[in-house]
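Model it.
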Amino acid sequence: MSYPGYPPQSGGYPPQGGGYPPQAGGYPPQAGGYPPAQGGYPPQAGGYPPQAGGYPAAGGYPPAPGGYPQAPGGYPPQAGGYPAPGGGFPPQAGGYQQPAAGGYPSMPPGGGGWGAAPGGYGAPGAQQGYPGGPAPGQPMPNYPGGPAPQPSMPGYGGGVPSNPQAPAMSRGYRGSIKDFPGADPLRDVEVLRKAMKGFGTDENAIIELLGNRSSRQRVPMVTAYKTTYGKDLIHDLKSELTGNFENLVVAMMMSPLHFDASELRHAIKGAGTDEACLIEILSSRSNAEILEINRIYHAEYGKKLEDAIASDTSGHFRRLLVSLCQGSRDEREQVDISLAKQDAQKLYAAGENKLGTDESQFNAILCARSKPHLRAVFHEYQQMCGKDIEKSICREMSGHLEDGMVAVVKCIKNTPVYFAERLNNAMKGAGTKDRTLIRIMVSRSEVDMLDIRQAYMQKFGKSLYTAISGDTSGDYKKLLLKLCGGSD
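Modeled.
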């Protein structure tokens, strides 16, 4: 990384070569290491633990002799160690389970929300949750997926996927922005101060700095700037920057949930309401995130989010938003297929199989059930009546309620595809919906931007990087492309 002032060294962090420790022989070294006594740690006689009768039994720890760990068997030991055979976690032989593809553990478990691994957004039948996956050839861990205690209630996700056309999402961290090693907010604000003071502004220095820091590294800069210079960083940035570039930079300096609260506030206040923004945020965040957004909104604006929504919307659309902003959706991963079939029948009876529409039934199921459960419901609905749930909603509803219900369904079915469509709509045609573009690029850059890029390419035949490059310009484009992370 090279930009004015910081960091001084090249090659990342740490600067020294050779790794840790530098000497050959592994960790600890076979001879002459620590402690100095030959034979490893502890000493062969009189040490801790004793060779016989100690803890654990033969085959465990300490290794004999030659360092740590003992081969073969690894950790835990094959016999007498922890966990005990037939009941430990994980059960397979060969020691402590190695990470599955995509990293261990997946953080957080499937179910969606800020920071969620993309398993939470997968299509029906995709294995989801924590840990990242079983080792090759091993049936465990199986969460969710194993059969439920009753044979009539199989776990959703086990065995053959209910929708074989839907590919499983990749695991591991799927954001485009990562923590920069060794970042120091006090040194970072020096770069920002140098870029802003004097005649003119060094926008490239600001782009390089902010585009290579995660949210949790950017937010502390606000306090560090005030501590160092006695001035407000956001105020100084606004005074030096203009237009969409200014709006993007300011958005990146806010914590994710404060940014969500501010976007909800903007969507509600003033003439007109940005209904799509309300649905986008409330349908894609986890319960914990929605509850925190509620707290921030009340603290910042002196009014409950629910009251603000209720005073600015009406009818069944208002009920939908009020339900979503409660942050009390079921977040269990295991699915009862029999209950999914019942819910699919209820939706059919409330819509396609009824003169008129029972909107409250749709509201109750779409806002209260878990996302894995709803993916099973949508599949059962398709199997039962031969129609996609989205098309049924479009036939039965209209206006903002139709748009809201369809958006909830799309977000639950496949969140990256939903956001890819939102980005495309923001950029297609005459003009650009820059507020939507900024909000999605900032809020998803550390969640599932890699999956959104993949979905965009598959659905629209060009990379998101190319689309942004063709629809924006200048410093605004440069920083957006940093958030995008690359071309596919």
